[in-house]
Amino acid sequence: LARCVDRVLLDGTTAPLDAAAMHAKVEALAAKGLRVLVLARRLMPGATELGHHDLQGLTLLGLVGMIDPPRSAARRAVLECQRAGIKVKMITGDHAVTAAAIAEELGLEGAREPSGRLRAVSGRELAAMSEAELPSTADEVAVFARVAPEQKLALVRALQGRGHIVAMTGDGVNDAPALKQADIGVSMGKGGTDVARSASAMILTDDDFATIAAAVEEGRGVYDNLVKFIAWTLPTNGGEATVLLAAIVVGSELPVLPVQLLWVNMITAILLGIALIFEPREPGLMQRPPRAVSAPILDLDLGVRTLLVSLAVGGAAFTLFEWAQGLGLSDAQARTIAVNTIVVVEVGYLFACRSLRHSILRIGLFTNPWVFTGAALMLGAQLAFTYIPIMNRLFHSAPIEWWWWGVMTGVGIAVFLAAEVKKVLVHGEPRSAGLPNAS
Which of 28, 209, 231, 297 has its CA 20 to 30 A from that of 335? Predict the structure, then answer.
């Protein structure tokens, strides 16, 4: 528009250009989310060469508005990310008003103008900002328009300086520096350049933003199941150590022999622990705030849980071992009871570890059939350990009366119920509504 001096009327004649009125039309179209092009001409009869200096004194022909509406899946993915505590920002080459309108359609959250419209910061404004202003602007504003490649890099660094983990998407050669600087560079597999892909840590094979949200959810589910496995395996191993330590402290015979511990660790890891890998994603997984990067896996809550369950496993096995010896059972029978007690309690605690926050009723009792399969196979293995002669010889076990299984099952159920009650007391039932105040 700055290069135009007049405009064409409908009858083909020309009239003086009202630049302010034309700018208002551009703003009106952009506010609808349209990308606006201005078409202009200059008649140069007989000219054989054209240079950049010739692009002046133009006659405006008209405006063209084009729309590339965001996919509905993209809006759902943006909202899902924001509910998960992930700040979503748009960096685009579009006009600032167009970018703000599209961001409104997508549901982006960020700083707003006094008029209530989503604020869009242009590359020109970024260039005029001081280094002290940039970090807060990068954090608060959701839309950046007409941004130069070096400004994308500056925005990534500013967000990282505020303590954020930054994922940056891009497809062009100019995006490569920002993709490389970001904690997670994400390039487009279909429309992206080779330079962008080589600078990225992740490639979207379908060029769909919704895939990023799905990847976050999958990653959270995998991490969740990893923590569940650790929460289950540490106390069960701690319980085995506790029962041996108790025997040493009181000066009694070992309730469990080394070969029996080897059996327990081998069989439970294969049949029980692996079942937690197949645990479905929990409800409300994408409504949790992101965890801090510095947060340890073994936090205070998990440490207390490990200590309490270790004492429960070891205490139950040692108590039943002493009880069996007091009733006159042989050492082999008493040790068989101790080993089976450890296993039964581990099975009960396994069901409690299917979720560290929700009760088993909320996540669904039968949503992970592998847990039941593993528990059934574990029971079969322990029956073989107890009653098959060759197993008795290999592992120094001995048959026991059937009523002992009722006692051991009662102990396993007690540990399961105690773990479930702790969830309610410590975590309660998390509310599904509301957004986390985290980024």
Answer: 231
Q: What is the CA radius of gyration of the chain?
A: 33
Give the side-chain half-sphere CA count within 13 A for 374: 24
* Residue recorded with tokens 């703000």: 100
State how far the Cα of 327 lies from the Cα of 408, in Å rounded to an integer: 16
Backbone angles phi, psi at 62, to 5 degrees: 160, 180
Write out the chain's pLDDT in tens, 439 residues.
Answer: 889 999 999 888 899 999 899 999 988 888 888 888 999 999 888 877 888 888 899 999 999 998 877 777 888 899 999 999 999 999 988 888 888 888 988 999 999 988 888 899 999 999 999 888 999 999 999 999 999 889 999 999 999 999 999 999 998 898 999 999 999 999 998 888 899 999 999 999 988 888 999 999 999 999 999 999 998 999 888 988 888 888 888 888 889 999 999 999 888 888 888 899 899 988 888 888 888 888 888 888 888 888 989 999 999 999 999 999 999 999 999 999 999 999 999 999 999 999 888 888 888 888 899 999 999 999 999 999 999 999 999 999 999 999 999 999 999 999 999 988 888 777 665 443 333 333 3
Q: From CA 290, how far away is CA 294, in angstroms rounded? A: 12
- Show the tokens assigned to 171: 């497809």
Structure tokens at 205: 């094979």
